[in-house]
From TrEMBL, chain A:
Transmembrane feature ranges: 21-45, 89-108, 120-139, 159-179, 200-225, 254-277
Pfam family, one: BPD_transp_1
Major localization listed first in the record, in broad terms: membrane
Record's protein name: Putative sugar ABC transporter permease protein
Example of a GO biological process term: transmembrane transport
Signal peptide: none
Its membrane topology: Multi-pass membrane protein
Organismal lineage: Bacteria, Bacillati, Actinomycetota, Actinomycetes, Kitasatosporales
Family statement: Belongs to the binding-protein-dependent transport system permease family.
A Gene Ontology cellular-component term: plasma membrane
Top-level division of the source organism's lineage: Bacteria
Automatic annotation (TrEMBL), chain B:
Subcellular location: Cell membrane
Protein name: Sugar ABC transporter permease
Entry keywords, A to Z: Cell membrane, Membrane, Transmembrane, Transmembrane helix, Transport
A Pfam family the protein falls into: BPD_transp_1
This protein's record includes keyword Acetylation: no
Aminoacyl-tRNA synthetase keyword on record: no
UniProt biased composition (Low complexity): 1-29
Positions of the ABC transmembrane type-1 domain: 98-310
Cellular component terms (Gene Ontology): plasma membrane
Amino acid sequence: MSGTRTLVSPATLARPRGKALYWAVFTAVVLLFALAFLFPVYWMVTGAMKSPDEVARTPPTLVPEHWRLGGYTDAWDLMQLPQHLWNTLVQAAGAWAFQLVFCTAAAYALSRLRPAFGKVILGGILATLMVPTQALVVPKYLTVADLPLVHTSLLNDPLGIWLPAVANAFNLYLLKRFFDQLPKDVLEAAEIDGAGKLRILWSVVLPMSRPVLGVVSIFALVAVWQDFLWPLMVFSDTDKQPISVALVQLSQNIQLTVLIAAMVIASIPMVALFLVFQRHIIAGISAGSTKG
Amino acid sequence: MTKTASRPPLEAAAARPAPARTPSPASGAGRRRRLGDQARAYAFLLGGLLCFALFSWYPAIRAVVIAFQKYTPGSSPEWVGTENFTRVLHDPEFGAAWRNTLTFTGLALLIGFAVPFLLALVLNELRHAKAFFRVAVYLPVMIPPVVSALLWKWFYDPGTGLANETLRFLHLPTSNWSNGADTALVSLVLVATWANMGGTVLIYLAALQSIPGELYEAAELDGANLLQRVRHVTIPQTRFVILMLMLLQIIATMQVFTEPFVITGGGPENATVTVLYLIYKYAFLYNDFGGACALSVMLLVLLGLFSALYLRLTRTDGEEA
């Protein structure tokens, strides 16, 4: 922790003036962070507890006069939050499961089974990294609305989220690179023991790949939970919309305190996920910088 | 080659003076086995491959095709040449959308580069409460973008919003924020920066931590002051990461949609219509999928250039494909 040398030398910091300056800067940064990043969140959580009259008051109250939970219960009932949260959960969980199964299998095949044209396929997959996803939403929408050959529509169907989520070159490449680095002798030993490919994937490769599976899982869940434009296009049916779309659609004609409460509720799952896994998530992002 | 299958040719080869290493006729069993291996490999690949084909490769081709067609879902498309492009180019919103998107990207780069880099620089010097700083700065990233947008829409309310209340508290003139034609775009950049800065700060921090301390010591021995050390040690050492993040940010911000859609609805007076928003409007408001695809192709070409640059710069480990 303190052993590493940074911009300011330890000698400077040890001097009384250096120490005073350090603590001054430290306090300033703590205050700045609290104001910039925590205060807006505090404002949202407490705003939902104010009465409609209090939330519109000038100057505003820093602390609600009465800590009422009515905003939250109203949002839960009036905005059909259980329904939309459930939709989001189903969409995210399905996208996660489909990605884990199909991306893992494909990455394993590309990494270990040497399929014919494997390099061409990998090249085609990596090329999609160059094509920003959002720029292709309209033709993607038309494809989902009328699947080629089978001519079925996946609109208003969670499959419209699940299947396109599999086409995630970033996660697939992450998995493939990890599988490439697994020790060869262990896999060969399993093969000599007569284990089939599926068996090897299930009982040898996957248990060794826990770290990368964790990262891919978090990416997959967060991506679906946070997405807005794609579910906005796929779900025109209000009852099937995930919470992000529903919030925007309902924000027009609902009381401010109720809307704010709904916003807080919509944020809880991802913020909770972050607080539980913060060390892994932060370590994963930091590692991303050096390993690309 | 299994041992049993290759035994007879091997014995024959041993009798001959020159050892023929290539087995003469590929034995039937070996070929069948190889075919079986391929079938198995493709069974594993199939699901993923189908999804990529349907939802990545096919739409990319289709964007280009539909850009030259009059396309309405349900009826058969007609070829119209470059008509979609000329129509889109003559749309007064076209110029506004590109101008706004490029301004947004430029401002986001300016604010979104300078602020996180300075924050990371300061954070790297602090030896206490490290976990607090990292969690606090990343917290907005985990809040759904729609919630951030709605939250700031409320803050930007000219009457009772937090932004103007703060200005009044400090006895400063109030602003129209996202409701004023000349301040709307900047207001959106602030939201995007607030919401996305966490990841950038964490990556810069990791890059700063990988700078060898001896470099600073040597610079100090040479009499370099703080600013000189930043200029001659910190920035050159993190140049690669800075460049990477800049490119990624350009690619991400040029596709901005949620903030203008939720906060301003493209207004006031088209001040915040972005290219992606215009694509959305063409498809879902005007029902003009040809025009939407023509716009998509333009955005695709521009972003593809940036992406190619990014991939070229990151592919340092020289892997396949």
